[in-house]
Amino acid sequence: MKNTEILISGAGIAGPTLAYWLRRAGFTVTVVERAPGPRPGGQTVDLRGAGRTVIERMGLLDAARALVVDERGLALVKESGRITARMPAEGFGGEGIVSEIEILRDDLSRLLYEATRNDAEYLFDDTVTELQEDADGVSVSFEKAAPRRFALVVGADGPHSVVRSLAFGPEADLVHPLDIHTAWFTTDEQLDLDGWFQMYNAPGGLVASARPGRLPGQSKVGLSFRSPPLSYDHHDTAAQRLLVAERFAGVGWQVPRLLRAMDTASDFFFDSMGQVRMERWSRGRVVLLGDAGYCPSPLTGLGTSLALVGAYVLVGELAAAGGEYRTAFDGYDRVLRPYVDEAQQLPPGGVPGYAPSSAFVIAARTLSMRAMNHWPVKNIVAGQFAKAGDIALPDYDRPAVV
Length: 402
Hints:
Shape: globular
Number of helices: 13
């Protein structure tokens, strides 16, 4: 390649992972991120299957283990707080709903950033505004920085990807809503969780959850409700908090405390759940990675695995093709597509199983959770968790492309 400069939009998990492998292959890397720094907050993500293998090949597994959140497993609770069903973390060989290696999203993002900050250029508090491709590269305009030229542009900027919108078209054509919305935030409220990720369901498709954070006394909260797509201001967090509070008004368990904590949470985040489904993840010199190209939704628990594995495969194919991006993008699709297709299949029950609409279905789901710890249901459910490792990672030989 005459021009080996690559732009990555997004400094979450997929972007810095890609930056690491690109630098190993000899590329010059710039990462642009709209946030003023590595984004704080977020729930736990898990390192399992092939995603854990990628972290291990990066030499970061021990560092990741040092940041693990100590959780006993998932517990369903009644309004009184009594636990009605459990799935211990050691179940399914440490690969269940709560896995052996649970790490906060911002801890993993920071770990990946620190591993690449000296080798890649990071442009924080900025974003891409225009892409102009020609035979030799892509001219990129930014909101703040001066325009620059790159050989390739990678959109690793999440399900609401700016790069995807510029190169592939409107979000509405590519993101398939699951008709459920969630608010995530952190609280220092002293919740009596006893080390469990506790989940409470109320009729009407309402889900309230709280799980231990890594720091003493810290809890990570989720408030979900089922609804068709909503029209709201994505920048008006006050209106979003009001929307969530209205939906959960009068709900029991610890919800009143959680709503009060939500009002002052500095890392409050609200969004709808959906899946990004595309026939192809590249167009010309622009390619998509992670949630930007194939978000499976948080319900699958496989978004982190797809981001890590996708970055590894994309660079492996670029190196194997000597930087010939057309061949590399074809290989990226060929190797990764079966893994993505499997990961995007929702768990048994799908959205209704996660957020039941009636008391009867809630009771049935509780019985189902109990059965998951025993044969034969355990064998059926194990297939969903095994998807994280359902790819034979190529052992790429990465000659420098420069």
